[in-house]
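Minutes, project check-in

Agenda point 3 was the complex the collaborators sent over. CS summarized: two entities, 1220 residues total, and the question is how they sit relative to each other. Sequences were read into the notes so everyone works from the same version.
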Amino acid sequence: MSDVLARLKALQGNRSPSAGDEQAKLDGRADGVDRWAGVAAELQAETVQAGSSVFLVRHEVLPLPAPYGRVHVQPAAPHPLLARGAPLPAGLTPDKVLYIDTETTGLAGGAGTLAFLIGAAYVKGDALHVRQWLLPGPQHEAAVIGAVTAFAAPFSAVVSYNGASFDLPLLRNRFAMHGRPDPWADALHVDLLHAARRLYKGRFADCALQTIERRVLGQGRSLTDVPGREVPERYRAFLRAPRAPLLSGILEHNRQDVVMLAALLGHINRQLESPGRDLSARVGRWLVESAQVEQGLATLLAAADSDDEAAWEAAVVLKRQGRWQEASRLWVQLGEAGWGYAWLELAKVEEHRTRRVDEALKATERAALLLGDTPEIVRRRERLNAKVGREGGAGPQPS
Amino acid sequence: MNDAAARAVAALGSEHVASRTLPARNAVTADLPSDLPDSVLHALTARGVARLYRHQREAYDALTAGRDVLLTTGTASGKSLAYQLPILTAAATNPDATALLLFPTKALTRDQAGALKQATRAIGRREDQVVTYDADTPSHARPQLRREARTLLTNPDMLHAGILPHHPLWQRFLENLNVIVVDELHTYRGVFGAHVAGVLRRLMRLAAQYGADPRIVATSATLGNPREHAARMLGRDVQLIDRDDAPHPAKDVTIARTPVLNAETGIRRPVLQEAAGIARLLADDGLQVLMFAGSRQGVEQAVLQLKPDVPSVRSYRSGLKAEERRATEEAMRAGTARVVVATNALELGIDVGSVDAVVLAGYPGSTASMLQQFGRAGRRDTPGLGVMMLGSGPMDQYLAANPDALFAGRAERALVNPDHLLVALDHLRCAAFERPLPLTEPYGGLPAGDVHALASHLAEDGDLHLADGHAYWVGSAYPAEGVSLRRLGRDDVTLHTADGRVVGLVDGPSARWMVHPGAVYVHDGRPYEVTQLDLNTHVATLREANGERLTRANREVDVQPAGMLKSATPSGADVRLGEVDVRERVTGYRVIERQTGRTLARHALDLPPTQMRTQGYAVAPNPALLAGLREAGAWGSDANDYGPDWPRIKAQVLKRDGHACRACGATVAPLHVHHRTPFRAFATAADANRPDNLVTLCPACHRKAEREVPVRSSLAAAAHVLRSLLPIWLLTDVRDVRVQADPASAMVDGRAAVVITETIPGGVGLVDALADLHAPLMAAARDTVAACACASGCPSCVGPAGDLGHGGKHEALELLQGWAP
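CS then shared the predicted structure for the full assembly.
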């Protein structure tokens, strides 16, 4: 044991795991293409030499349209709603869209988290191309980052899943640390997690990528899929002793992730164009919140007869526009269907807008039947009764 | 002015110790530098600054010439302007230039941010470029602040965990880093200091990699070793600027001490109550008073006492909300708060103007602190008034007897060891996370070989990957998160309630005696009982307790030399010092009734021992001194001459006891035979050696039994006073060292000795410093005991008689006179 490790062990006393006598040796093997040829072949990848560095690239071509669960992958460019208020880049065609996903040494972020596998998919001609860059060791990172930035520069939109808070900041750190300009400084970034939350939040247990993939696209993962939490440790095992089987599952997992992004973008685009009944409420609301109020309201109203969520959202918009009668009709419809809060909304309008105290009182009692005597209902009832009293117990006043 | 203090001291019945006038000093000024940019010149003129103090000009010139600077001038000497000037000059000439300012407290950061914003506006730049970035900065605001920041104010913890690990986001800022300001450098010492030095080292490494070569301006209170401390903390050789050329009003300083309540026991009136009494009397005289109390609880207690008489009294301490502190600062400046009671949070350079009088409840631990606190007293042309009320501790008593020591201009040394192996290991991890670490280069004070060995060690856990002559971070963790700058090592025990709520953390080595099963643990004023301690998962489970009972752990400590020790032979003593292994066992605990202090029960514990390597210092009386002490009957730590029959009697007792320790059952040789009632207490050996007075014990239990005999040895008495006096020379916390009397110390071949060990693994250099301080320390201990008026030991000298039996005061004095003739 070296002197400094002996001192360290003594300082840590019996609190520390024993410092082994074996020192990890500096990996002194020749680190060129030859060393990685075997691994590359097993992973169906190629080795690329760049200066003294080396990395692995796997490339695959999928003819389009390609079936994916219940849907097909087809060339697509992001729907304008996905730009979240930003203008779409000029000339944004499907072949300018890059789907991106990374596999990393951890989730911590910061300068010390590496993307050891960067996966990208893009449409070229009538095929989806999947390209993956694999880092055989951290000492080769500069070369991979150089290759990725050069490759990414021509694209004008990047599509990811949770990339806004994870993959993109992480990759931007790596670009900066290797002195590369950010290839996406002017590109549109579409994070499909945000879109998925708008459309599906509350419908499934969560909006994780694989949940959406299974429930929305009807595609599962193979039994040999690598769970995300095992990924960093497998890569560290690979660094200690490079064996292709440690990484083959991760490459496959990453490959499916980027193909899934292409499938999901197409599916979401179609929903935004013409939402099915089950999504009208969500799409309508999205349109309303994106300042396309009339179009959103039309979408909501079209589904309002059969979809309570759409009816509620439509009533909210109508109320905001001062269209009391139309809103009231929807609240009655919802109230009859058992929505207590719809009766309360109706009571507010009858009390303050149309000023029909008796109607307000009736609506309040309907709400109480469904919600019980909540403090709000009790207060409202007392106030309304007092108003009825002041008006001499007379019936409804002609307004 | 001094009359007011004298009247107050007399009215209260405190003992007057000394009065001094610290004379007023006039300013020495210098021209403004001729190369100042116009905008800075105009801003200064607008502020009414036509000339600089000479030390400010010196600092400016040194920085301009490319040197790093340490300023140790006094309170209110314009240290902030000295570092603002280079920042403003750089900002005026280069809009991209950036500056990083590190402050030890949030209050200081806020105070300086205000001043810097104002100054930045005055030179025609946007004040938004002055950014405070700390744990309170909301995360949604951070990206914009990072983009805008030219002058960044933060603290070491944020730099460590929030900025450096994310340095790619700070690329622009680091590339343009021009000036680094490290304020209040003296607050960085011990473990915290070593960590902060590690953080600064990482900052400098990244700055260099981004092509920046910033100058450093540090400020500090007076230190005994300013340049050495700066070199260790900053890794740079600094130009020291220590002559204070700012004007200072005269200060009339009165030193007093609390009066004795009971001459026999030496009990004195509580210092806090006495100091608050002085503060009230001075406030009655129409003076605005700032009182310093040592602790948060002390502040609150004093405020409670003062409230009825001085309704405007306010407190200033950590733990208050920012608005509350700001309101107090305002009330102080405006003079509406007639008394403010503060912890040393206010000692550091918060600008609250000056008060008429400053009252200190006890010696604040260093002359630098004392002078900084007094520095608050006095306004432009009016002398200030300072009163320090000394309490009953030996250090306060020593200073009461030797008040000159307070004004001799002797400053304490700050100790820090940035190459401390455990600290360095933590920061190597963090550094590798931030940027691959070259294995063929030294890192700070670690030679390349050590860097390589430590990196290999870390690679075993998989966190580092070694390739290409570098160590690359490939771990999943975010190492800065697991490294607290305030602690050493990473095996903290988490305190949970049964429902999973986290109450707090205790460091691993302390867990065994602080949160052992059955322990009462007080957190934030709330008592808990520990139901379980799991040392494998590092979790202690607590439940709320009623607070009527306390517990005290029995700790057995054994100190063994870890290699060859160095020897020294100062007067009357054999000294050994060097690396030692401190083995500690928590063997049980007592349950104590809080009201009465009565022991209600004793329980045994079976916890694994801990072992720690650190630095130790043992002082044994040399044979000549020992002979003299024995002759005078002043030595209570002897193996006695048990008479010619002893071997036979001993063998009988061993046989009777089945060759096993009667206390713990150990059967391993050597076993001792112990006199229950001390041998010396009998007239004849035959009486002492009666079998019912004898018992078989193993060496560890024997040592414990000897410690508990009611006759306190001179050694134990001397240890008590030495323990209390150490901080007079070293900026250290009493918890950083352990001082004990060992009747059979392995450090000095089994002889009796006072053994001083550092409680921090590896030590921070306290023991080495002790070697230089041996003579003055012993002399101070001797004087303190000699000057004490008590009969046979009291809290002010060798510790109280009473529960420890005979105090041992005269015996200790004989011993100390041998060590300091």
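Noted in discussion: The two ends of chain A are 96 Å apart (CA to CA).
Follow-up: revisit at the next meeting once the mutant set is ready.
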